[in-house]
Specification:
mainly alpha
Length: 284
């Protein structure tokens, strides 16, 4: 005679017990794999300029801040940071303003050709960025936009993805709120500024963080349009350190300095970022 068969509940309990142990282990492993490049970057930036041997160089021993002194003592770094801050912050403000205005118009206004215009604008997402790079540069060069802030910023303002997300979010705002504001005599500008924008604060924070990160890390367009060394951003300036045969520790120290504001931006907008992602997912 065969022994008693295990109950279904016991097998399910054991599977759940295994998953409770296995899933955290896999997540911890994925976290370590993800963080290892950042760890290596920080440790190697604190190593002496010569005499590195791998994998011994990855151990946190014999650390020195000489590479950071070289990077922070350079006058070029201040200019790179200034250019990057102007490029990122001005772009964030203008992209959010234009995307929110366009999203409000596409979501709540009624005008001829609205649907065709929206999908034509959204079709920009299907066009590879590199295809428009040369025509944009030729046009700006004829307008004397090379090596200028406006030439660096203006071509990045028509953000179809930001407009689409703003339109989807604003479409979920009840029309009754807008109608009540109109009954009270509010103009379209007042409705947009005092009603729509406050309600869009979570998605604006989320988009602002994404746009900031994109511009802060942007390399190709600043490299093309900023041909003067005075117009270099952090990404193009750090790449220039590699061309100048600087030690690896100096190049990585510049990368750490460039990475620090990204962490600060995320910490500042973390709550709004999480809320915006959750609300966007709920609204579809």
């Amino acid at each position: 005679m065969s022994g008693p068969r295990p109950r279904t509940g016991d097998a399910l309990f054991r599977r759940r017990g295994v998953s409770r142990v296995l899933v955290p282990l896999l997540l911890a492993l994925a976290t370590l794999v993800t963080l290892f490049p950042f760890y290596a970057m920080v440790v190697l930036s604190l190593k002496p300029a010569t005499g590195l041997t791998f994998p011994d160089a990855l151990l946190p021993t014999g650390l020195t801040a000489e590479a950071y002194k070289v990077v922070l003592a350079g006058n070029d770094l201040v200019r790179w940071v200034l250019n990057t801050v102007v490029y990122s912050l001005v772009s964030v403000v203008l992209v959010l303003l234009l995307a929110s205005m366009a999203g409000y118009a596409f979501a709540k206004k009624r005008f001829p050709g609205r649907t065709a215009m929206f999908w034509s604008f959204l079709a920009m997402l299907m066009v590879p960025y590199h295809i428009t790079l040369i025509p944009t540069f030729v046009m700006l060069s004829k307008l004397d936009g090379v090596n200028t802030y406006w030439g660096l910023i203006v071509p990045t303002l028509a953000n179809a993805q930001a407009t689409f997300l703003m339109r989807q979010f604003i479409a979920g705002i009840p029309d009754a709120l807008i109608d009540a504001a109109r009954v009270d005599g509010a103009s379209d500008l007042r409705i947009f500024v005092q009603l729509i924008l406050p309600l869009c604060r979570p998605i604006l924070a989320t988009l602002g963080l994404f746009v900031f990160l994109w511009h802060w890390n942007d390399f190709l367009w600043p490299l093309v349009i900023g041909q003067d060394p005075e117009m270099r951003t952090l990404t193009t300036g750090i790449a220039g350190l590699m061309r100048e045969s600087q030690p690896l520790s100096v190049t990585l120290a510049g990368s750490v300095v460039a990475l620090a504001p990204i962490f600060l931006a995320y910490l500042f907008a973390q709550r709004h970022f999480t809320e915006g992602v959750a609300m966007t997912g709920v609204k579809g």
